[in-house]
């Protein structure tokens, strides 16, 4: 059995330009739990209040597969374990399993902690022992293990022995500087296994570009616990990439670390984490990149049409990806049919609706749209093609005014003119904290009188991605909006050179998706009756 340990939310967030809100982290935990990850490192509660608040919220989550783990270090040399705020913060999270790191390299004990080698051994043993005595299972990260081992193997092994004596449940051997090559990793692990009878793990960084190889080779050498981050996020050059490690273990080594159905979620989760990190998805990433199974022209295209094994090392659908023939419109329709078959069954790849949807998606993607985290917009697009779509409202125009006074106050006002389903013109205005908030308020003011259910919607998240940094302030942007009605959440997307237009498209999709989904629960006559009744009531009040 191989344990998967994800540290995207802690080690991954230390990468340049990577940042997750608490809501982002909660969503990622839910997705990783469904994927089948065994441990999710949530953060460092001893270092910042944000992580303390996060662990309070995690307690209420009902997880099926994963344990959320707090991260910390051995106690401060000047303090006893029971007086150390870092260890206390770990206990206060109430988590069953905790992870701490300690110094394995004698150089770090001497030059960083400024203590002797024996005192460092005591720090490791007493810290782990304290946590175990207080009811925790401890995963011990032996920081800089491989550098320490090749500098002074006897001392590095002694740090592991005291951790074992203190009853750590797993010893994770860390290539913290990411500078060791695969055969060095393999040799050191073999020696450790000959010296100690304890569960071993691997934590590799990618500074030499071999973190995934080091992790896979470590499993082949006998480790049973693998740490990494999704998309390889992490400090400097990043961590070992779980997006590659997981399929390598399952599909190449035959290790059932997760179920087949769970593996099919890999690509969508990788993309979701990119979106939440507000970073472009690496499309040339192995397994989960959009280019991973893309073929363009010449002999490759001809061969792949005849037998996909000629230029594909796995079936893309195993990891939730798809084959793409870049010079042909025939690629990807099978995946599209599979994606919508619950709502629209009985179609084949040559059905006019499938062809139309595929072409619209292809054109939209060329414009910068992505639907991995915008299922609401995707479902609306599909509905408009497959069904007789009746628009809930049509925009005539909008205006946004942002005014800054001499005293520095900024006022924002949005004016909207639209046509409702009955054909009446509705003209409203509203203030807001900013242009998007003002548009949101004005749109609600216009629509809630006819569609009271829109009062349930709350904006959960709003992200802006610049798609072409070379264009500066004139660049095209993608706006990703997440909304909730208290029961469900959905994402919508808009793309434009004008950030207000992109925001408007995502915002109106969000409203329309709520109305479209609720319309499934009531017939059209009932909905029209509600509109008529509301309109008559308003007319009487006006009179």
Q: Give the overall silhouette.
A: globular
CATH class call of the largest domain: Alpha Beta
Number of E strands: 16
Total number of distinct structural domains: 2
The low-pLDDT segments are 327-331, 523-528
Q: What is the rounded Rg?
A: 27 Å
What percent of residues are in strands?
Answer: 15-25%
Helix content: 40-55%
**Reading side by side through the largest sheet, how are the strands ordered?**
1-2-3-4-5-6-7-8
CATH architectural category of the largest domain: Alpha-Beta Barrel
Could you report the average pLDDT, rounded to the nearest whole number?
89
**Span of the ends, CA to CA:** 74 Å
Predict the CATH topology of the largest domain.
TIM Barrel
Output the structural class: alpha/beta
Q: What is the helix tally?
A: 19
By oligomeric state, this entry counts as single chain
Biggest sheet statistics? 8 strands, parallel, barrel
At the fourth level of CATH, the homologous superfamily of the largest domain is Aldolase class I
Sum this structure up briefly.
41% of the residues lie in helices and 19% in strands.
Q: How do the helices and strands line up, and which of them pair or pack?
A:
Blueprint: E1 3-6, H1 22-35, E2 39-43, H2 49-58, E3 67-73, H3 85-92, E4 97-103, H4 106-111, H5 117-133, E5 137-143, H6 145-151, H7 153-165, E6 170-175, H8 182-195, E7 200-204, H9 211-221, E8 225-228, H10 242-252, H11 260-263, H12 266-277, E9 294-295, H13 298-306, E10 324-325, H14 333-340, H15 352-367, H16 375-386, E11 393-404, E12 410-420, E13 425-432, H17 435-447, E14 458-466, E15 477-484, E16 489-496, H18 499-519, H19 524-542
Parallel strand pairs: 1-2, 1-8, 2-3, 3-4, 4-5, 5-6, 6-7, 7-8, 9-10
Antiparallel strand pairs: 11-12, 12-13, 14-15, 15-16
Helix pairs in contact: 1-12, 5-7, 6-7, 8-9, 9-10, 16-18, 17-18
